[in-house]
Design brief:
Distance between the termini: 42 Å
Strand content: 35-45%
Radius of gyration: 17 Å
Structural class: alpha+beta
CATH architecture: Alpha-Beta Complex
Helix content: 25-40%
Number of helices: 4
CATH topology: Aldehyde Oxidoreductase, domain 3
CATH class: Alpha Beta
């Protein structure tokens, strides 16, 4: 019998803390079939745009749709690569410059199994998930974040 997997909520209100990241990594100690982990931390940059500094990004999302899309991305990876775990977390709300807003964690049996998978997951999230960021500037003005190829 095929058990239907639950769609998990990837969203965290506020920044993703180092304590949360450490606990997530620590929880994998008991999974002794895993031999390699790769993780990505996305941090809010204080870019300077036309003489104004980005002091925060206010993240919003179409949460139900984004959770489903991220679930489907994970299932596709599990179907095509020898990966044991994929965890995706994204902040919602106003996240200050320097704070972590994205945490993606991939685990598999060997390092060669996970290389490249994390990049694939991140690119899929970036291009498919309806997650939006409004850049807040030091003069309190704002604009919707414009993503580019090197983000």
């Amino acid at each position: 019998m095929n058990k239907k997997k639950v769609i998990k909520n990837i969203f965290i209100k506020g920044p993703i803390t180092s304590d949360f990241i450490a606990k997530s990594i620590e929880s994998h100690k008991t999974k002794k079939i895993i031999g390699a982990h790769e993780l990505f931390l996305g941090q809010v940059r204080s870019d300077n745009i036309k003489g104004k500094e980005v002091v925060a990004i206010d993240f919003t999302a179409q949460e139900k749709m984004a959770n489903k899309i991220c679930h489907d991305i994970k299932e596709s990876i599990f179907d095509n690569f020898p990966i044991y775990c994929i965890h995706i977390y994204h902040s919602l709300g106003k996240i200050k410059g320097g704070d972590v807003c994205v945490f993606v964690f991939v685990s598999g049996p060997h390092r060669s199994d996970i290389y490249g998978v994390l990049k694939l997951v991140l690119n899929e999230i970036k291009t498919k998930a309806p997650i939006f960021g409004k850049e807040i500037f030091n003069d309190e003005s704002h604009r919707w974040k414009v993503n580019n190829n090197h983000d």
